[in-house]
TrEMBL record:
Residues 1-22 form the signal peptide. It comes from Nocardioides panacihumi. SUPFAM superfamilies: Cysteine proteinases. PANTHER family: NLP_P60 DOMAIN-CONTAINING PROTEIN-RELATED, PEPTIDOGLYCAN DL-ENDOPEPTIDASE CWLO. Residues 190-204 have a biased composition (Basic and acidic residues). This is NlpC/P60 domain-containing protein. The lineage of its organism: Bacteria, Bacillati, Actinomycetota, Actinomycetes, Propionibacteriales. It holds the Pfam family NLPC_P60.
């Protein structure tokens, strides 16, 4: 049996033409040499190594996908950090403009008070020779005239003091407003510089992610070609099979994440059962002992009073308005358009730019920053999600860690702009990792 086995292995593994000969026949000089026992052992090891490489290649493909995902998430964190810095810079610039306006108003008031005080001072100085106490006494025609002049002197002095106090107050207010305007302007400049630095960081991160994606794509293509050789199929078939495997794995992971999220819902969502009115710990007594005071039983209170129902500890917020459908329709109209960091249309988007413009179409103004979109919406639980709500991904339990946002459309599905290289698309809410924040605009 050695010769047929050797011939088969030679034909299938080594890929050369072999001649099958009888065990007792001597090979002729023109025939191909029969593989030795060592050749057979080597061929068998090669076959075994090739079979072992299939799961190894598939594991390498999974690792490549995970690297791609990590790179994309790192880029999106940097991009949303830039959106946050830009949002804060816009807020600071508005605060600086308001402070400058207040300083301008205070300066105008100071000018008016300065003019009024100068006029009062001038009038007082013009009347001074006639309103001194000595002049009054000398020219007085009687006690009444004297008292009138004394009163006039007092009134003039009071008016002058009052005008001076107004001038001082206006001066202090103008100085404070000017100082605040200067401070807010400096803060605005700092946040503008921070936004510029964040922009550069985001640009570098996006470039690094794009480079990483290209390297990983080339690596995956090489792995798929190797997989095709190992499985003796075409590269196209191997790529289709690998894509189907990845899709099935993603759907399985999404299903598991959905089940885990449902199981993790807080117990407050389902009110506890009403405790029994009689203690369950006491053993039943078929012939209860006579109770000399049966009146205090718990029945009368239900007839004499109707206590207000206990409020839901976590009531559902109002359902999304009709604008939710407009928001979904807008986002759906952008399907297939490219992801570009910092973009908010009309033909390219990042995650928060898409949700901002979608809800603008629905009549709700939201900033171009995922953290601020969460902060300006009503937080909800996963079980409360309705079409039009927003779902968020963050690094921790703090909303300040949010780096991605998507528009919920129902049935566990979302519309979003995922990352560089991936266009606006519809996907499972659990397409990469479960979201950890939910809100209703």
């Amino acid at each position: 049996m050695l010769v047929p086995l050797s011939s088969a292995l030679c034909a299938t593994v080594l890929g050369v033409t072999c001649t099958v000969v009888a065990a007792s026949a001597d090979p002729t000089p023109s025939s191909t040499p029969v593989p030795s026992r060592q050749d057979v052992r080597d061929a068998r090891r090669a076959v075994a190594a090739g079979a072992d490489d299939v799961p190894a290649v598939q594991a390498a493909l999974r690792d490549a996908n995970e690297r791609l995902q990590r790179s994309a998430i790192a880029a999106e964190r940097a991009e949303e950090a830039y959106n946050g810095a830009r949002y804060r810079a816009q807020q600071a610039a508005r605060a600086a403009r308001r402070a400058a306006q207040r300083a301008g108003v205070a300066g105008e008031d100071l000018d008016r008070q300065r003019t009024a005080y100068a006029a009062t001072l001038l009038a007082d100085s013009q009347q001074a020779p006639q309103l001194t106490a000595l002049a009054a006494l000398a020219s007085a025609d009687g006690i009444e005239a004297l008292m009138q002049r004394v009163s006039t002197i007092g009134n003039a002095q009071t008016a002058l003091d009052l005008q001076y106090q107004r001038f001082l107050a206006a001066s202090a207010l103008a100085k404070a407003a000017e100082e605040q305007a200067r401070s807010t302007d400096q803060a605005a400049q700092r946040t503008k510089d921070e936004a510029g630095a964040a922009r550069e960081t985001a640009r570098r991160s996006a470039d690094a992610a794009a480079t990483e994606a290209a390297v990983i794509a080339a690596r995956k293509a090489a792995l798929v070609r190797k997989l095709a050789r190992l499985q003796d199929i075409s590269v196209a078939t191997a790529a289709a099979r690998q894509h189907a495997l990845e899709q099935a794995a993603a759907e399985q992971a999404a299903s598991a994440a959905s089940a885990a999220a449902a199981a993790a819902e807080p117990a407050a969502a389902t009110p506890p059962a009403t405790p029994p009115t009689t203690p369950s710990s006491s053993a039943p007594d078929p012939t209860p002992a006579a109770d000399p005071q049966p009146a205090p039983a718990p029945d009368p209170p239900t007839q004499t009073s109707d206590p207000a129902p206990t409020p839901d500890p976590d009531p559902d917020p109002p359902a999304p308005s009709s604008g939710a459908q407009a928001a979904i329709a807008f986002a759906r109209a952008q399907l297939g358009e490219p992801y570009v960091w910092g973009a908010a249309g009309p033909d390219s988007w990042d995650c928060s730019g898409l949700t901002m413009k979608a809800w603008a179409a629905g009549g709700r103004s939201l900033p171009h920053y995922s953290v601020a979109q969460y902060e300006q919406s009503t937080p909800i639980r996963a079980s409360q999600l309705r079409p039009g709500d927003l779902v968020f991904w963050g690094d921790s339990s703090s909303p300040s860690s949010i780096y991605h946002v998507a528009l919920y459309i129902g049935d566990g599905r979302i519309l979003h702009a995922p990352r560089t290289g991936e266009p606006v698309q519809e996907a499972s809410m659990y397409y990469w990792t479960p979201p950890n924040f939910y809100a209703r605009p």
